Amino acid sequence: MKTKGLLTALAFVSLALTACAPGVQPLLDEYNALFDSVTERGKEQAAAGKLDWLQNYYEISYTSGVSLHAPEHCSSYKWELQAHPDFPGSSVPAGFDIEKYSKEGPRHFILEQFKGEGFVSGSCYILTCTVELHGEVFTDRCTILLVD
Length: 148
Prior knowledge:
The strands form 2 sheets. Strands 1-6-5-3 form a 4-stranded mixed sheet, with no helix packed on it. The protein has a two-stranded antiparallel ribbon with strand order 2-4. By secondary structure, it is of the alpha+beta class. The longest helix has 18 residues, at about 1-20. Helix content is about 25%, strand content about 30%.
């Protein structure tokens, strides 16, 4: 009786091991294929004459900040922040220097706290980033709404 149970267990373990013989890599590859590669997508967009890296709209607490990044390997980066024309009460604080917020390099826009820089809750802005890649200029914009 013990031998029969041992043989059954051994058969079960052997079956389980042979069922997984190729390993987990095919399973991982299938899962990863569900997501497109940001790098590959960027190359495809650049080849089509379009780069799109910012979301259209960000709603951010004015007591917090934002960290946005442009595509890698561009020859130039330029960030601009302006008050949204449809929000008359919005204005960029006097003395705001956007170059100061590229601490991590020109491809990054990192503002750690809007409130500390004189921005006001309820204000709305347009952030524009222009890059040059392989001699072509690409521009992307987003709207940033500051909320409580």
